[in-house]
């Protein structure tokens, strides 16, 4: 009997670990923001992208060839339809957004979030801008999807070599008690 | 309490204790290029007596000599030259026609109007044409608009 219980326990634990991964985060579009063609500057240049997509040069002398706004990434967070096993719908969700530091000519120096819908911030307000963000959302329930917009400051190094550069970031969603 | 019952009671606690994690790597992009620049090295000189545009250069500035224009940009990039085929006066009279363009990197680009930068991001253009003086004017001065864009 004990052996059977242990085997059942092992199976339950395995199925639990699968179920717990059901809280998911997706972003759309696949690549965003796309700043477009920019003439390199002789000094490091910072482009600030608001959560609405407006792009402003805040320092430096690189020239973005268009003054148009960009599409900012929309992050969608949900528990999966009727996912009861992980108690995802009842638990706080911690969202962490961190830039991936690399050696490219463009890097993310600051992140900001806004336009949250389908959920509320645990603290009652959006987190302030920072080099990396970590904040909690209140439980989103069974059928809800929380969405939010991500803005950022991008630093383009001085006299960057020509080419297309990508700068990455990672969004992590974690259930917390 | 049997082990099975203990496990069943422990399952919700297990759900609270084990943090669930989902990660989404994301990417943004920017395209960087070197600015294009145009520098006039020599002005164009056109003589009404010369019926054929010359693209040859000499040490002296001849009465009929091409404009020399240095352009810079991204190494190896193809660029397009934008210049009118005929320069007309405000009265609609043709002043300069049959424009000829020669590129140090590409050769004669009078028709294609497309050239490329060398490995250092440079090219030299020579531009000439045939002057058709306006009636009664002994000396004509006109500006030839020329611009370049990456193709």
Order of helices and strands of chain A: HEEEEEEEEEEE
Task: Give the distance, in angstroms, between the N- and C-terminal Cα atoms of chain A.
Answer: 33 Å
Overall geometric form of chain B: elongated
- Helical segment tally of chain A? 1
Query: How many strands in all of chain B?
Result: 10
β-strand amount of chain B:
35-45%
Q: Strand content of the residues of chain A, in percent? A: over 45%
Instruction: Give the C-alpha Rg of chain B.
Output: 32 Å
Profile the largest sheet of chain B.
6 strands, antiparallel
Tell me what you see in this structure.
The complex is a heterodimer of chains A (177) and B (151). Chain A is mainly beta and 177 residues long. Chain A has one domain. Chain A has one helix spanning 2-20; strands spanning 24-28, 31-39, 45-49, 55-59, 63-64, 74-78, 92-99, 106-117, 133-137, 145-156, 163-176. The longest helix of chain A is centred in the first third of the chain and has 19 residues, at 2-20. Chain B has one domain. Chain B has one helix at 3-17, and strands spanning 21-33, 37-42, 67-72, 78-82, 87-88, 94-103, 107-108, 114-116, 122-131, 147-150. Chain B is elongated and about 115 Å long. In chain B, 23% of the residues are buried. The interface between A and B is large, with 64 and 31 residues. Strand 11 of chain A pairs antiparallel with strand 1 of chain B.
Describe, in short, the structure shown:
Chain A is mainly beta.
Helix/strand layout:
The complex is a heterodimer of chains A (177) and B (151).
Chain A: H1 2-20, E1 24-28, E2 31-39, E3 45-49, E4 55-59, E5 63-64, E6 74-78, E7 92-99, E8 106-117, E9 133-137, E10 145-156, E11 163-176
Antiparallel strand pairs in A: 1-6, 2-5, 3-4, 3-10, 6-10, 7-9, 7-11, 8-10
Chain B: H1 3-17, E1 21-33, E2 37-42, E3 67-72, E4 78-82, E5 87-88, E6 94-103, E7 107-108, E8 114-116, E9 122-131, E10 147-150
Antiparallel strand pairs in B: 2-3, 3-9, 4-8, 4-10, 5-6, 6-7, 6-9
């Amino acid at each position: 009997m004990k052996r059977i219980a242990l085997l059942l326990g092992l199976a339950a634990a395995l199925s639990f670990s699968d179920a717990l991964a059901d809280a998911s985060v997706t972003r759309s579009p696949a690549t965003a923001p796309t700043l477009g063609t920019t003439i390199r500057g002789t000094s490091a240049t910072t482009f600030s992208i608001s959560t609405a997509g407006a792009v402003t040069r805040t320092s430096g002398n690189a020239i973005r060839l268009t003054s148009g706004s960009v599409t900012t990434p929309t992050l969608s967070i949900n528990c999966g339809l009727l996912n009861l096993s992980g108690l995802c719908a009842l638990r706080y969700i911690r969202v962490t957004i961190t830039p991936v530091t690399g050696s490219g000519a463009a890097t993310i120096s600051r992140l900001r979030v806004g336009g949250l819908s389908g959920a509320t911030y645990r603290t009652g307000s959006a987190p302030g801008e920072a080099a990396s963000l970590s904040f909690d959302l209140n439980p989103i329930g069974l059928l809800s999807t929380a969405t939010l917009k991500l803005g950022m400051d991008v630093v383009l190094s001085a006299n960057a070599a020509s080419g297309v550069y990508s700068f990455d970031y990672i969004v992590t969603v974690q259930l917390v008690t | 309490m049997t082990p099975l019952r203990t496990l069943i009671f422990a399952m919700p606690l297990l759900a609270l204790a084990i943090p669930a994690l989902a990660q989404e790597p994301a990417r943004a992009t920017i395209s960087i290029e070197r600015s294009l620049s145009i520098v006039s090295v020599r002005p164009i000189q056109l003589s009404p007596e010369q019926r054929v545009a010359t693209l040859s250069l000499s040490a002296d500035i001849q009465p009929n000599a091409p404009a020399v224009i240095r352009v810079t940009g991204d190494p190896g990039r193809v660029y397009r030259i934008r210049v009118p085929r005929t320069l007309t006066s405000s009265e609609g009279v043709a002043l300069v026609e049959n424009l000829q363009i020669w590129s140090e990197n590409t050769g004669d680009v009078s028709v294609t109007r497309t050239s490329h930068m060398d490995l250092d991001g440079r090219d030299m253009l020579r531009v000439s044409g045939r002057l058709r003086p306006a009636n009664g004017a002994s000396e004509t001065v006109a500006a030839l608009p020329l611009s370049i864009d990456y193709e």
